[in-house]
Structure formats: C-alpha cells, structure tokens
Amino acid sequence: MTSRNMSSVDQIFNAPRSIAKVVPAVETAEGDGARVRRSIGTPQLRRLPPFLMLDHFFLTDGAGFPDHPHRGQETITYQLSGATNHEDFTGSAGTIQAGDLQFMTAGKGIVHAEIPSQQPKDGAANIGLQLWVDLPARLKNCDPRYRDLRAGEIPIAHPSDKVDVKVISGQSCGIDSVKDLAYTPVWLLHVNMRPGGELSQSLPKGWNSFIYTMSGSITVNNTKRVEKFNNVVLGTDGSGVNISVDPSETEAADFVILAGEPADQPIVQYGPFVQLTERDIYKTFEDYQEHKNGFERLKGWESKIGKEFHLRRRHSFRV
C-alpha cells in the first residue's frame, strides 16, 4: 500500500468520461427465495466486458443460493450487511461478514453454495453486491481458488470531511489497494459522500467503467443527477469521472465505482458457464453431467450448508 498527499479536487478532468447510459437495477427473483436488483446481465445491459453480471442482493432468512456450478469466470462478493456462509466441493468453507469480500475464481469448474447466516427475528436482510467477471482465455481452465479480503484490511481514503473512499481494488486519492485479489484486472472503490462532497476519480485508459448507486443521489460530471439503484455506464473517451452530492440533498450517497480491463475475446454465456464458443458450452454441460474435466468432485457431493438450508425451508413451510 502506498500513499501520497492528494485532495479530491486535485484531478479536475478537462475531458471527463461521457455518460453512455443509465440503467435501472431491476428487482428480480434469483436462487431460492432471493431477491436481487440486477443492472448488468439484463436486456438493457447484457454485459460490459469484462463484467458479466452485477446483482445487489437482499437475502432474508430462508433465502439463498444452494449448490450450483460455475465455469470460466470469477465472482466478487462484497458483503454490505449481515453475513454469508459458503462451501464448495473442494472442501473450502467459510463466512464473510459485513465489510468483507470474497474473490472466487471458478476456472475449469466449481460447485458451491452461498447461504446467508440466519438473522435476528426482526427480519433484517443480508445485503451485498455480487459481480461476475469474465476470465481471459488463458485462464478459463485454471484450478479454482479463493482470496478473501477482510474489512479491516481495506485502506480508506479521506479526501475531505465529506468523502470516504474504501480502496478495495485499484487506486484513489493517492492510495493503492491490496494487490493480486483477482486474475482479471478490476478496480472497485466504495464511496460514501455527504451533501456538499465531491470526488474526481481517474480511471485506467481503455477500461470499461460504471458507477452503481446504493443510496442517496449523486451528480455525475456536474450534469446528471442519478438516484439510488441505478447503474451509470461511462464511455471510454475521457480520463476519469467527477462525482458530487449537491449541498441541498438531504442524505448521504453510497455508491461503488468499478472499472475492468476487457479481454479481446468472444463471450458465450449460458447461465453460470462462460466460454469462448458454443462448442465449449456444450462440452461444459457434458463435463458437468458426467463429473469430469474439473467436475470430478461433484459425484456424491452435497454441501452441508445446502442441506441445512433445505431442512430449514421445509420446516418453515410446515409451520
């Protein structure tokens, strides 16, 4: 981690990136009983390479994502509140708490479960973000792996008394993030901005980028006011983006800035399988069904947290 003195307004861009489109995060059902707001992976925004999907999830007790497969991609899960348990057929298991992240590389194949920890009876939800990222061709068949990042490990920039930036991956306000968390180069910045705050954020040249708003309202490039639950897709024509919260706003804004390096390769996706050709997809289904070429450990396997999840649901239905 490195740091140098730089205020939030040291980098006012003469040519900020244009706003390509603003995509609402549409609420939809997913998994077992889960509700998510999806803004990438919809008809309005099918994908933004290397990004394949972005879900803002809200999971109450009795909802979750029991055993399911992945191949050819990475997932980044950012727990905003509550906690999520995970377990896979390699024997890996654990829990991410509020503020933690999990970087999971599916590579040649993995089957896992993601189940929220039971919340108090007040019905509070487990809330977070999950981002699906394409893997470059040379890593499509790599071994699966995990990298966890705990809340206390994330450096935080305070460019002013109105702005806090968690530098999860990438660079902001002179602070570099923890390195080597994902194979695909991605920047992920979590910003909390109070009324009157502003931030000028540089972005890597040629990378695709967007802003996702989780609460409050922001103004992008001094021209476009954007409310919560929207994805602001930026063009690649400038060197960064200017974001502010008007002093007249009544609440702080909470949002993430993401940027990723697109690979020069085709994307053929069928649900959680992401390959280069349709033939590769057919081969993936064969491997999955026949428990081979990365899915050998699936035979006879079922996650413990998945079993407990199904038992709780059956019990709740009987009650």
Describe it for me?
By secondary structure, the chain is mainly β. The protein has a single domain, classed as Jelly Rolls. The protein is built from 2 helices and 26 strands. The protein has a 7-stranded antiparallel beta sheet, with no helix packed on it. Strands 2-3-4-11-6-9-12 form a 7-stranded antiparallel beta sheet, with no helix packed on it. Strand 25 (268-270) and strand 26 (273-275) form a beta hairpin. The longest helix is centred in the C-terminal third of the chain and has 15 residues, at 304-318. The radius of gyration is 20 Å and the shape is globular. It starts with 18 loop residues before the first strand and ends with a helix.
Descriptors for this entry?
319 residues; mainly beta; Jelly Rolls; seven-stranded antiparallel beta sheet; 2 helices; globular; disordered N terminus
Provide a short characterization of the protein structure:
Residues 34-133 form the Pirin N-terminal domain. This protein is mostly beta strands. It has helices at 278-290, 304-318, and strands spanning 19-24, 26-30, 34-40, 51-59, 65-70, 73-81, 83-88, 93-97, 101-105, 110-116, 126-134, 145-149, 156-160, 163-169, 171-172, 175-176, 186-193, 198-202, 208-215, 218-220, 224-226, 230-234, 240-244, 253-260, 268-270, 273-275.
